[in-house]
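User: Run a structure prediction on this.
Assistant: Running it now.
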Amino acid sequence: MGAQHFGVGENKQVILALEQAGWHTSSKLRVPPGIHLIEMPSHSPELQPAERLWPLTNEPLANGTFENLDELGAVVFEQCQQLLKQKDLVRGLTNFHWWPQVET
């Protein structure tokens, strides 16, 4: 699905924040009207807190093989279910001191 499918254009604008990973950029990229790319500063995990969770979500996948995408998805789903039970761990990795505190 592309910008046209979602009605992006003059009356509906989208800002897409990208990290500066090499595979996220290309000089050949044609950005449709209405989509604006903003590159985040490098080495700024506080702007993308989920980045700090990738080691936890990827842990059961390391050196694994999967018969198909459904099997892979089931492993990722189970790991995410386990992480939902470890709120202090997730909070410790993603809650930066300058974020507003939220009661849970």
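The longest strand covers residues 14-18.
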